[in-house]
Amino acid sequence: MDNLDYGIIGNCRSAALISKNGAIEWSCLPAFDSSSVFAKILDKNKGGSFEILTNSDYKITQNYISQTAILVTTYTNGNDIFEVRDFMPRYKLEDGSYYSPPEIIRYLRYVSGKPTFKVLYNPKLEYASSDTKTYIKKDFITSLTHGEKFDTVFLYTSFNKERVVSGNEIELTEDGYFLFGYNEKIFSPSVKKVYLEQQRTKVYWLNWSGKIPKYHLYNTEINRSSITLKLLTYDKTGAVLAAATTSLPETIGEVRNWDYRFCWIRDASMVIKVMSELGHKNVAKRYLQFIINLIPDKDEKLQIMYGINGEKELTEETLEHLDGYKGSKPVRVGNAAYKQKQNDIYGILMDVIYEQLVKFSTDLENGEDLWGITKGIVWIVDKHWKEADKGIWEFRAEDRHFTFSKVLCWVAIDRAIKVARIFNKSHKIEKWTRLEQAIKKDILENAWNDEVNAFTQSYGSTYLDASVLLMESYGFIHAKHPKFVATVKAIENNLCNDGLLYRYKNEDDFGLPSSSFTICTFWFINSLFKIGEEEKARMYFDRLLGYSNHLGLFSEDVDFKTKRLLGNFPQAYSHLALIECALNFSAKESDEKVLESMRE
């Protein structure tokens, strides 16, 4: 497999990646950040997988049931046809809570003929760090490891258990199932019960998708991206993950391999903003509560990232026994970036707080908590905005005065002033306005470089950086301001490669970047659209959509030459930026249609 041709299934507790041939090659149970049960994606020999194997004369196709997270893999040789419907159960119970057990259901639907298949069932618990033994019991198949940790999983099936474990051929004559889970079931499953689980899960997703407004353009892409973002939310706490995987490399064979199964304040806040626009306000409110719960003390600084249960220590270690995705070592779990100082997170958080107060002012709880957080953020920004930091791209070397970080310090104060107006706290506005103006003046004087005719990556630098494109979307500068237009043009000339963008071209801790950061291309497209180059923006957007995988999913990066997907997958950041672009194009189309009807 040359691309990240995987589908994602999940239930807001955990997730699994399934290859286009129907193999589960990544899953962590019972939660997103648990150790892996299947990790073939990170080591094709040792990692473990759960595969449905057919003869070479079968053609295999894959799609989602429209507007759901149920993945259908179809196997056909003309006469003999069957489907595997993969999902993780999620639906509402009578008491209003959600049923989302740590289990994967593979429902095999008989279509026609006499289809046959074999099963390769090979769980490797605890990141395959020690032997996993599999045993056939009366009601189920169990697999366990006695390595550094004890762990166990269970497989229930309507098929002959001996044939499943030994990999012997199975003929499908009627619907059947595999139910793979972390816990032993109290009540034994049956084909009828599992079918009902599928229907309930389908109804859940159809109802969820039904809340998304219909737009003039790109409804299919907006819906798939929205479901993907939802799959990356952790129901228990309201946290939002950056991605479902660890250590998928930004460049094959290099060492830029990170664990993304955590909640970055920056990524998650942007996700919430978009999800609110799409009508899913509960996601937004629960994430805000997650943030409030993280800040118990008034002087406590925000970290850039947290564990999905709010953990503050995310110790990074390497799994030396795994070969890595296509040999790209090291495989890392945990992420040392949690210790980094990034001043931009305060602006992003304040922007979200302000957005939610505007959208949900009548029903948003915790107003006093949010005002307390607002005052705390202003205090921290006032104290630290002049300091250098690691920046949005998490440079691990020396700190710098990154333009994006400074702009987001300005955003923090600008939004705090707006929040003060909402809460009628006029006594704060004058003082905070002086601070806001001081930060803005500092940026305009130090971030602009006459030599390159653009705002640059950091103060005194000649390097360009895609993150400065967000100056406009955060309201720091108008889209038609000559300096912003010049910056967009300079970035196009310097960082654009065949319609794809570098984040930056200067060397970082690991050398020169050699792949395109997908979200940067979406930012660039948005900026072109805003400065009036709408036709070119739409052309780049449609081209970029063509680089998604067969299911419309994006990872973190795209290779400049081959256009293959790279980096952790699926990436929340990429999908939220896709939605933002699509909404802008759709709004433009809507406005033009209104004008046309007025002319008529």
UniProtKB/TrEMBL annotation:
The keyword Hydrolase applies. Residues 8-139 form the Trehalase-like N-terminal domain. It comes from the Bacteria. Keywords: Hydrolase. Signal peptide: none annotated. One of its GO terms (molecular function) is hydrolase activity, hydrolyzing O-glycosyl compounds. Residues 223-529, 536-582 form the GH15-like domain. The keyword Oxidoreductase does not apply. Gene3D superfamilies: 1.50.10.10. InterPro entries: 6-hairpin_glycosidase_sf (IPR008928), 6hp_glycosidase-like_sf (IPR012341), GH15-like (IPR011613), Trehalase-like_N (IPR045582). One of its GO terms (biological process) is carbohydrate metabolic process. PANTHER family: GLUCAN 1,4-ALPHA-GLUCOSIDASE, TREHALASE. This is Glycoside hydrolase 15-related protein.
